[in-house]
Amino acid sequence: MNEKDFQEVIQFAIEREIESVDFYTKASRVVKFSGSKELFLDFAKEEQGHRKLLENIHMERVGQTRIETIPNLRISDYMVDAEFRPEMPYADILRMAMKREERSIQLYHDLKEPVQDEDLKKLFSFLVQEETKHKYRLEKVYDDEILK
Q1: Which domains does the chain have, with CATH numbers?
Q2: N or C: which end of the chain has fewer CB within 10 A?
Q3: Rounded CA separation 51/38 (Å)
Q4: Residues 112, 48, 133, 99: is their CA dihedral positive or negative?
Q5: What is the pLDDT of residues 105-121, one digit of tens each?
């Protein structure tokens, strides 16, 4: 993969991380309970961490990345997306967050499919993995707190 293509993919992913930080920060301001606020602030911090990781990633290191298999509870598969509203209940924000992560997973997966370059495929697999971790965590919270 050439450096220009690599940097374009990284910049695109960084922009997605910035959008996610904004979403989780807004969500933390809307929810009423401190535990919920902390959950969304934790996600915002993780997205900030992803941004920093992407800003400092080098092509050579991508090939060394280990890709894990993350469980998929498929809870969000049966949900419809919503538009963010300031009065949105906690459960709806969780559903919205799961759908956001699901769309990111699908986006990176779709971008990976036609690619021939193995390093670029690995980069997209890494991005899928990171988004899948968030989706899984959100689905666990939803399952434990809402569906209980």
Answers
A1: 3-145 (1.20.1260.10)
A2: C
A3: 20
A4: negative
A5: 999 999 889 888 888 88
